[in-house]
Amino acid sequence: MKHWKGPWLMGVAVIHTGFAIAMFGGVLRGVVARGVFDSVGADPMVGAVVWFVLFGVMVFVCGLAVAALDRATGGELPRPLGWSLLALASLGVVLMPASGFWLAFPPAIAILVRKDW
């Protein structure tokens, strides 16, 4: 049985975070230059970039957990996990159609139909 769902999510997270660094490197360098602690302040652009990076990190952590659970259960991941991932991806696509949220659909659907292609 193939265990691809966790690595898929981790790959999406790496691409997401790499994109953030490539596109918003100047903003991130400014955060570091200000000493990191309390460096976001009231600037909405800095806040958005920080959340963008942190979301990528959380998707990576989720991918790690999915990979471990996938192996531990022999591919029988809990359906609420699939529904949650599907709901998040759907909301993300509705709010931002031109985004990477589309990449969360394959593992979400695979979890729901319990199919390992």
In short:
This protein is mainly α and 117 residues long. It has helices at 5-33, 44-73, 79-95, 105-113.
Describe this structure in words.
- 73% of the residues lie in helices and 0% in strands.
- The protein is built from 4 helices and no strands.
- It starts with a helix and ends with a helix.
- The mean pLDDT is 92.
Could you list some keywords that capture this structure?
elongated, 4 helices, mainly alpha, 117 residues
Number of strands: 0
Question: Main β-sheet, in a few words?
Answer: none
Low-pLDDT windows of residues: none
Q: What is the SS-derived class?
A: mainly alpha
How many domains make up the 3D coordinates?
1
SSE topology sketch:
Layout: H1 5-33, H2 44-73, H3 79-95, H4 105-113
Helix pairs in contact: 1-2, 1-4, 3-4
